[in-house]
Amino acid sequence: MKFIDEYRNVPLALDLLARIRRRASRPWVLMEVCGGQTHSLLRHGIDAQLDGAVELIHGPGCPVCVTPEVAVDAAQNLALHPGVVLATFGDMLRVPGGRRTLHEVRAAGGQVKIVYSPLDAVELARRTPDRQIVFFSVGFETTAPATALAVLHADRLGVDNFSLLVAHVCVQPAMEAILQAGVCRVQGFLAAGHVCTVLGYDSYVAFVNRHRVPVVVTGFEPVDLLAGILECVEQLESQSFRVANCYPRSVRPEGNRRARQIVEQVFEPADGPWRGLGTISRGVLRLRDEWGRFDAARRFGTLAAQTVDCATECRAGDVLAGQIKPPECPAFGTRCTPDAPLGAPMVSSEGACAAYFQYRRVPVDATIGSSPLEILPS
């Protein structure tokens, strides 16, 4: 049992599984809002072990996956513009835009530079004053502080050939949008622990009161996730809803105040598009007017203008909204694979489609008996 070899808290995990099964009087539907959590749940077979007690729906918890095509297209336009170098993270290279990827643009002569942090992009701009360096900034609130810090650093150094193509998105507004959709089966949320490390979870109190659903902050290890699931089930069974923190070693109610201050100094929330989910109210971050000189959309105008998302057979939007699971997409595992992806959730290491392809290429029923956690008596 690989699981036993690599994870020392197996007895606790098995006890939590048994308690969830005993407590659930009906199948409850929970959504985890983190791609890392999705991979952990599938890797350890937790979703299969809870079959009949809890159904886990995989939400828009992959920041690469929800970066809209319009932003990827704008990045491609900038990479092809003379005198511009587009700096970005490596996992963005194969994310499809409307018609192609940054990897294809680079092969066609576009200037795309892989960096490991926004500060690397600032340093690149400092070293190459004859080029315009545009950092394609993506991610949830967890990566926004580093991007904001890069803006402050560039300002302090007087680097004026650095700018941002901003594609940061905000998690809680997406959760609001999912609950307000015409068809929504979600009865509780496992909140993303890494986002709450920055933001805290105080803001979820009003969310819970408004929607009457549990929100439980969880980490990424099996015991973290199972503890969060049990807490959700307890609340649903008792119909007493609240915000709970099952990740106290990393998350405080107020989050990281300094990181939040830096983000609020540089960015402000705005309405904006998510891939597959449409425009979400206050769902993105944009640079405040006082930092507008670092905004690539203002600096380059139509080069960074939005284009129209192209319709494809990829059902990434339905996957990201929790309407279907990856194997329900007709292209999954055949016309769409990690080697030839049709959509972002198959590209990213946090994508739900990539997780299903890696850990569960057959239906759940066929995995029973081979799951790493299949050592608990029914």
Could you characterize what this model shows?
By secondary structure, this protein is an alpha/beta fold. The protein has helices at residues 2-6, 10-23, 35-43, 46-49, 63-66, 69-79, 102-107, 118-127, 144-157, 171-179, 193-199, 204-211, 222-238, 257-266, 296-300, 316-320, 344-347, 352-359, and strands at 28-32, 54-58, 84-88, 112-114, 132-139, 162-168, 188-192, 215-218, 243-245, 267-274, 278-287. A hairpin with a 3-residue loop joins β10 (267-274) and β11 (278-287). The protein is globular, with a radius of gyration of 21 Å. The model is unreliable at 1-6 and 362-378 (pLDDT under 50).
Instruction: State Rg.
Output: 21 Å
Biggest sheet: strand arrangement: 2-1-7-8-9
**H/E element string?**
HHEHHEHHEHEHEHEHEHHEHEHEEHHHH
Question: Helix segment count?
Answer: 18
The portion of residues assigned to helices is 25-40%
Task: Explain the layout of strands and helices.
Elements (H helix, E strand, L loop, with lengths): L1 H5 L3 H14 L4 E5 L2 H9 L2 H4 L4 E5 L4 H4 L2 H11 L4 E5 L13 H6 L4 E3 L3 H10 L4 E8 L4 H14 L4 E7 L2 H9 L8 E5 H7 L4 H8 L3 E4 L3 H17 L4 E3 L11 H10 E8 L3 E10 L8 H5 L15 H5 L23 H4 L4 H8 L19
Parallel strand pairs: 1-2, 1-7, 3-4, 3-5, 5-6, 7-8, 8-9
Antiparallel strand pairs: 10-11
Helix pairs in contact: 2-13, 3-18, 8-9, 9-14
Q: Brief overview, please?
A:
Among the domains are: 68-170 and 285-304, HypD, alpha/beta domain 2 (Rossmann fold, 3-Layer(aba) Sandwich); 316-362, no CATH class.
